[in-house]
Design brief:
heterodimer, A: mainly beta, Porin, 16-stranded antiparallel β-barrel, two-stranded antiparallel sheet, 2 helices, globular, B: alpha+beta, Alpha-D-Glucose-1,6-Bisphosphate, Chain A, domain 4, eight-stranded antiparallel sheet, 30% helix, extended
Chain lengths: 339, 199
């Protein structure tokens, strides 16, 4: 009887394997964990994710499924852990602590080789950095990332004019919400340019009035990356976000320089200037941040030792004795495994 | 239970024996120290022009790998790529691609082809959950990946050698066959008129 069940299981496994070869379901994901130590012993630098002071803390486990059948495809990406729940997602129904855990959930249809329509809940098209730790070079994130949108639910159409130019236009919900309380309220677009091999630039715009906002918010964003040589890569992100009726916003720019010394070891520096626009007569506040990270790769595992120094125009940080301070510095070590 | 355990041991033993016996394809080094797959094939009864036409038809057919030919004069030079998939049982995902150069040379009664300049481009998942090239400039497969990545690099080499062998076998087989290379066309669906039909 047992022998029979073993053979049955083996046959079923083989059958599913054969089917998978025909139309494979892609399963991928990542796991990340980190340790952070702020030299003033305060959880000072308040960007996303690497937030816990003197603690070996969790990032998230992220699981993504993708399937393509002919011209249709879907992506479903679930995340569990602080990074993938309350640090990057709103609650599922907005009434309790439930979360749908969803980072991406969309379906796409390629009408032609050049034109694709996508609908659902998607990672934002704005900005350089992303929620998944495998998509970022530095482990701690930029102010531009933290203050910008994380996800945009909506429907968008992308048309590739050539291999060098494409355009996306779409209608979207408010930032980072599964459902829009004031109707589909945002319009957005992305012009993608690839003038030479290795250089891609994205010109992005997203505008609309969010539920409860004082005015219409418009974000203009430039994200570009250039692989200069086999070893050297440059990146730039610049953005301006303004809300009408004195609703504030921000302006900022971040420059990324990375050098791969070997296939297993590289160093990268991020320099960022970020300015919060004052509201109600308050003056602007800005911060200058430098982050030096190393990436040490061993198979699917990447270790990211990192030092970061932030200098602000106002005393937005704390010293050891809890007095206000204009600067903060920290060390962190993260381990990210991609599968 | 004993029978089950014995059967499993037998299967594992047999599969390891077969695995040892199976010859893994390997790439060679050329005189510049680059990986190469090189082969000269004799087809006495075919002229150079006939061989060229056959090769052209093959690379136009959907069954052939997509090769972007830069020149198709006396020496054909083209660029191609193969996807390296990481597979564990029923799970699979692309971990990168290997880009290569293909050279083809035809003479009366024979042709030769070689694949070289293998460069690995790792993939990373983008913000929408799709796997995309992490860089535009590849790492030559000859490069020493260091101790930390040696195992993974060895698997890329192994897959590349296997895929190149498959490419070569298929190409040679097609060149040898006398039948026309089928380019699929839309099949006409037969129409049956049922209106006003007596039954």
């Amino acid at each position: 009887m047992k022998l029979k069940s073993i053979f049955t299981t083996a046959s079923l496994s083989f059958a599913s394997f054969s089917y998978a070869q025909e139309a494979p379901l892609q399963i991928s994901g990542s796991v990340d964990t980190y340790y952070k130590y702020d030299f003033a012993k305060q959880p000072n630098i308040g960007t996303s994710f690497a937030s816990d002071q003197n603690s070996i803390s969790l990032g998230m486990i992220d699981l993504a499924l993708k399937k393509t059948t002919g011209k249709a495809s879907f992506v479903g990406e679930l995340s569990f852990g602080p990074r993938g729940q309350y640090q990057s997602l709103i609650n599922g129904d907005g009434t309790d602590d439930n979360s749908f855990h969803i980072q991406n959930l969309y379906a796409a249809y390629a009408f032609t080789d050049k034109f694709t329509v996508t609908a659902g809940y998607m990672g934002t098209f704005i900005g350089y950095e992303v929620i998944s730790p495998t998509g970022n070079y530095n482990y701690s994130t930029s102010y531009l990332f933290t203050n910008g949108p994380f996800q945009n639910a909506g429907i968008k159409g992308s048309y590739a004019f050539s291999s060098k130019v494409s355009l996306m236009l779409g209608l979207f919900n408010d930032w980072n919400v599964y459902k829009d309380l004031n109707g589909v309220s945002h319009v957005g677009g992305q012009l993608t340019l690839s003038p030479v091999e290795g250089w891609t630039a994205y010109l992005n715009v997203l505008s609309g009035k969010s539920a409860g906002a004082v005015g219409t918010g418009t974000i203009l964003d430039l994200t570009t990356a250039y692989q200069v040589t086999e070893k050297v890569k440059l990146g730039l992100n610049a953005a301006d976000y303004s809300v009408t009726h004195d609703g504030g916003g921000y302006t900022g720019g971040a420059l990324y320089v990375q050098n791969a010394f070997t296939t297993a070891f590289s160093l990268g520096l991020r320099g960022e200037y970020f300015n919060w626009k004052g509201t109600g007569g308050d003056s602007d506040e800005n911060v200058l941040a430098f982050t030096l990270s190393a990436n040490v790769k061993a198979g699917g595992l990447t270790f990211i030792p990192e030092v970061r120094f932030d200098d602000s125009s106002s005393a937005m940080f704390l010293k050891k004795n809890l007095n206000p301070s204009k600067n903060a510095s920290q060390f962190s070590l993260a381990a990210v495994y991609a599968f | 239970m004993k029978i089950v355990v014995m059967c499993l041991c037998f299967f594992i033993e047999m599969s390891s024996v077969f695995a040892q016996e199976r010859k893994e394809p390997m790439l060679s080094f050329d005189d510049k120290g680059k990986y190469i797959y090189y082969e000269v094939v004799t087809q006495q009864d075919k002229s150079a022009e006939a061989l060229k036409e056959r090769a052209k038809a093959y690379f136009r057919s959907p069954a052939a790998p997509k090769i972007q030919f830069l020149t198709q004069d006396s020496l054909w030079i083209g660029k191609g790529k193969l996807i390296i998939n990481k597979t564990a049982f029923v799970l699979t995902r692309p971990s990168g691609e290997v880009r290569y150069q293909l050279y083809l040379d035809f003479k009366n009664g024979k042709y030769r082809f070689w694949l070289t300049d293998f460069n690995f481009i790792p993939y990373q998942r983008d913000r929408y959950g799709n796997f995309v090239p992490a860089t535009s400039i590849g790492i030559p497969l000859e490069q020493n990946p260091g101790k930390l990545n040696a195992l993974e690099w060895a698997s890329y080499l192994k897959v590349t050698a296997k895929e190149v062998q498959l490419f070569a076998d298929k190409f040679k087989q097609t060149m040898l066959a006398d039948t026309a290379i089928a380019i699929p066309t839309t099949k006409a669906v037969p129409v049956q008129v049922t209106k006003d039909q007596k039954w």
